[in-house]
Amino acid sequence: MNPDAAAGEATAQTRPHPARLTVGVVGAGRVGSALGAALARAGHRVVAVSGVSEASRERARRYLPGVPVTQPPEAVARAELVLLTVPDDALPGLVAGLARTGAELPGRLLVHTSGRYGIQVLAPATERGALPLALHPVMTFTGRPDDIDRLAGISFGVTAPDKLRLAAEALVIEMGGEPVFIREEDRGLYHAALASAANHLVGLVTEASDLLATAGVSNPGRMLSPLLFAGLDNALRLGDAGLTGPVARGDADTVARHVEVLGAASPRALGAYLALARLIASRSLDAGLLTPPAAQRLLDVLGGAPDGRDGPGDPGGQVGPDEPGRPGGSGRPGGSGRPGGPGRPKA
After folding, report:
1. pLDDT of 338
2. What is the pTM of this model?
3. Fewest CB within 10 A of the end CB: N or C in the chain?
4. Total tally of structural domains belonging to the chain
5. Are 319 and 299 contacting, i.e. CB atoms less than 8 angstroms apart?
């Protein structure tokens, strides 16, 4: 074993939880500044911060007053715990650069906050004795003062070596979060799911707001807010049983009208509508909210199979009553008692 790595492993075994550490922040963006401030609030001491842009340096001065602004190698050298809070695509290069240029890595907790990566991305530094952790806060950060308070009660996607699990848990809890362990091989799927939910939601809502404004609504946010909060609550509590609206009801004529007006008003919005309508139709079919004939009428309007499957074995996107390998054939629950029957809420 590399002597530096062996020394780091021995340090990890004598450090069951990270108490009163000196902290360096490499990348004083929205996330780095908020997490650095949260660790300082928990009793750790932020001793150095680095930032490339003037906006980052100004953010560091605001959230971490009095902390020296340095270059990344110096921030690493001064700290026992180093936060690498740079964009996902910049992380591999940063780690490789620190290892290649001889930064003082042995025995230091090296923590990145990328959702995409686990600890393998830190391998060049781990080989030189650094102690790797991936702590991804499941929250959006806007650079506003309330970012720190948003950490309370959120989940952190954690990937860590077994010997550092206690340290990872302690750090997350100290920042006010809840650790959720994600396997290295699942990080990509984990991050794709989160990005799809959060980022696409913002795009959908802002696009809907623009369409409502075009339709003459003076305050789209006021109109959308109760509907969207109810929809989110339904989705989280009820799952597919919370699906409502013309696609889930199989109202093909209404969906056809949507396609028509969106095509005229915003081809960009139409593309998103078609893709998501196919997704909703597929989930509604699988959940027993739609019958195969109703789904067929919808896919005729949407121009393809409900979930986008138009390949071999599915000629023309046809939906049969006993489609192989798919819930919702002739054995799917039916009748007036199933979810989505009479009395299902409309939206």
Report:
1. 34
2. 0.78
3. N
4. 2
5. yes
